[in-house]
């Protein structure tokens, strides 16, 4: 993981310049991993972003 890419992605996400998905991609992390990094640094992640990133927005369907 490139520290510079992560730092930049955290800054841009915190400023809401990038979406969670865009920032995670820039950092080279999955969205779940990026959320962990945000939480470690006290950067707010909305419930809707968290749910979308972690696949809990809609129940999974088997059909």
TrEMBL record:
Source domain of life: Archaea
InterPro entries named in the record: DUF7317
Name used for this protein in its record: Putative HTH domain antitoxin
Annotated organism of origin: Halorubrum trapanicum
């Amino acid at each position: 993981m490139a520290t510079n890419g992560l730092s930049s992605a955290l800054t841009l996400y915190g400023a809401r310049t990038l979406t969670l998905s865009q920032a995670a991609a820039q950092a080279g992390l999955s969205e779940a991993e990026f959320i962990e990094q945000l939480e470690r640094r006290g950067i707010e992640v909305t419930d809707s972003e968290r749910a979308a990133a972690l696949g809990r927005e809609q129940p999974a369907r088997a059909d």
